[in-house]
From TrEMBL:
<comment type="similarity">
    <text>Belongs to the metallophosphoesterase superfamily. Purple acid phosphatase family.</text>
</comment>
<feature type="signal peptide">
    <location>
        <begin position="1"/>
        <end position="25"/>
    </location>
</feature>
<dbReference type="InterPro" id="IPR025733">
    <property type="entry name" value="PAPs_C"/>
</dbReference>
<keyword id="KW-0408">Iron</keyword>
<dbReference type="InterPro" id="IPR008963">
    <property type="entry name" value="Purple_acid_Pase-like_N"/>
</dbReference>
<keyword id="KW-0732">Signal</keyword>
<dbReference type="GO" id="GO:0046872">
    <property type="term" value="F:metal ion binding"/>
</dbReference>
<dbReference type="Pfam" id="PF00149">
    <property type="entry name" value="Metallophos"/>
</dbReference>
<dbReference type="Pfam" id="PF14008">
    <property type="entry name" value="Metallophos_C"/>
</dbReference>
<keyword id="KW-0378">Hydrolase</keyword>
<keyword id="KW-0325">Glycoprotein</keyword>
<keyword id="KW-0862">Zinc</keyword>
<dbReference type="InterPro" id="IPR015914">
    <property type="entry name" value="PAPs_N"/>
</dbReference>
<dbReference type="InterPro" id="IPR004843">
    <property type="entry name" value="Calcineurin-like_PHP"/>
</dbReference>
<keyword id="KW-0479">Metal-binding</keyword>
<feature type="domain" description="Fibronectin type-III">
    <location>
        <begin position="56"/>
        <end position="151"/>
    </location>
</feature>
<protein>
    <recommendedName>
        <fullName>Purple acid phosphatase</fullName>
        <ecNumber>3.1.3.2</ecNumber>
    </recommendedName>
</protein>
Amino acid sequence: MAMGLGLGSVYLLLLCFVLTSCCNGGISSSYSRTNDISADMPLNSDVFALPHGFNAPQQVHITQGDHEGRGVIVSWVTPNEPGSSKVIYWAENSNVKQHAVGSFVTYKYYNYSSPYIHHCTIKNLEYNTKYFYELGTGNVTRQFWFTTPPEVGPDVPYTFGLIGDLGQTFDSNRTLTHYESNPAKGQAVLFVGDLSYADAYPLHDNNRWDSWARFVERSVAYQPWIWSAGNHEIDYLPEYGEGEPFKPYTHRYYVPYEAPGVHLRFGYSIKRASAYIIVMSSYSAYGMYTPQYKWLMNELPKVNRSETPWLIVVMHCPLYSTYLHHYMEGETMRVMYEQYFVKYKVDVVFSGHVHAYERTERISNVAYNIENGLCTPRNDEYAPVYITIGDGGNQEGLLYEMVDPQPKYSAFREPSYGHATFEIKNRTTAYYAWHRNQDGYSVEADSVWFHNLYWKSLSDSSAASL
Ligand SMILES: [Fe+2]
């Protein structure tokens, strides 16, 4: 074949090389993976092992249980009988044991009947305190622990992990191990959607929802994962009588949502340390006058940046991505909401969905209207950075095809599995790093310092007025 290349083809190749070398805006990493395993781990893998004992609690996971960080929702499953929905808990330096009682739910999904899924909210915890908690009855109790966040305040350091599109493949396990072993020590995970990929199985085999929860228990029983819903949570199968979207997810994963009377099951906000986290739903209605729109219009103006300087948005589908798969799927959401992200100085938007990694420059495309032709994202020092972290491990493999040449607004992109951390230092500064799951635990494949947009705008304007 090579012998068949004419001189014209060689010139064309050279031209392409020069163009891609000269015109790229950011970095398209040349890192080459040594393998591309993306198969699910078999059900008899040790990571899915059942705890010992009759009706032993399993699939234990916690998430923030209120708006301020003094509540925790504890969820778990009992397989044989309902058992108890009670959580016994105590502070590390206290002998006083307290308890909270939750309740359980079950659901059927075609020919699958769920185990007993317990949810119990513990409220009014002390800040910055290690708590132990115990589940189960009789001889079959299991004990875990978590640490509550520091009291909300502008200069409170805090480190979030970022994981998305995790699934239950061999790479999922490697990514989770990397996160657990990362010396940056994430204290809570912002999970950007697509959890178990159970819907990849015939009839959306819900046993894979169970196995996934057993797999991640080793992390999420000990630190909260802040959930957002992805498309693999929809589990829509009307031809088999399963026409209720998000049925397994909504039974298994509770979040602290508000907005009474408004059907907004997946959009909610929390304060945690020095961050204000807004979780949006890519798969709920979001057009003008929808509940999500009204909620966000109410939510953004009330964020007090003197209290929580870091304004972070989480949603599954990215607004900016330069991979060809899912290209511009988030465009209508961008048209709706980017203007508000810019107006309210959102620091960073984390998304998943695209099974690869990408970080943009600070950019916006809000200047565009159909007459001015400014339809290209522009550098905007007060606009968010958009980070796609849909590279947890998934079940469908990595995405390699990208817009070429790399658009200027794309700062770094690479098809590899991994996770990231966002380390808030104080009100003005945070450090972000992405960790490829094939490297050593402390290796940062991409990193950048963040300067808080709100405080930067204040210092810029005071400097300008001098
Ligand atoms: Fe997705």
